[in-house]
Amino acid sequence: MISIPFTPYHLGPSGLFGILFLKWVDLPTLLIASVIIDIEPILIIVFNLPYPLHGFFHSFLGGFLVATVLILVMKFVRDYFTPIMEVLQVKQEVKLRCIIIGAFLGTFSHIIMDAPIYNNMNPFFPFHGNPFLIDSAFANLYISIMCIYCFLGFLLVYLIKLSIQLTNLKKLKN
Where would you tag: which of 25, 39, 40, 55 has the fewest CB atoms within 10 A of its CB? Predict the structure, then answer.
């Protein structure tokens, strides 16, 4: 099977979950956390490093460390995302609890979605092996299609929420 080091597929499930549960999960943190894990394979390819593409940071321990660093960073930079969120008409109060949930949910969901399709992963590092591995073209296709449908669901829910907000704004102006 061909190994693709980075895909935006992880944004689909994270975006859908995040837009549905805005009160409990910080959307920007969740979206970043869901793809930041793939910096590892990108660096391995760019620098031609002798490591597996889905190494340490594609484990729960590595994901925990990434989420922890992301929480610390987002604690200080999250407010810079607020103007973007306002332009997109996604109103969300910034709360540390929501940032923490978003960071861990994003990194761990990335690992769980990758584990069935990559045989070079060790999700329970330092233990060797991948109990989630299915390693078939069908599994890869199934997860990819699920992620695409989730992204379409994310767009649909976003557009419905946006439509409702714009309708309410119109009513207030009249």
Answer: 39
pTM: 0.90
Burial label, 43 (beta-carbon count in 10 A; 0-12, 13-18, 19+): middle
Q: Are 57 and 63 in contact (CB under 8 A)?
A: yes
* Cα–Cα distance for residue pair 74/15, rounded to 1 Å: 17
**DSSP conformation class of 52:** -
Q: Which amino acid is at 98?
A: C
**Polymer length in residues for the chain:** 174
CA 91, 95, 97, 103 torsion: positive or negative? positive
Chain-wide mean pLDDT for the chain?
A: 91
Residue type, 8: P
For 73-116, what is each residue's pLDDT tens digit?
999 999 999 999 999 999 899 999 999 999 999 999 999 999 99
Start-to-end Cα distance in the chain? 59
CB 59 within 8 A of CB 123: yes
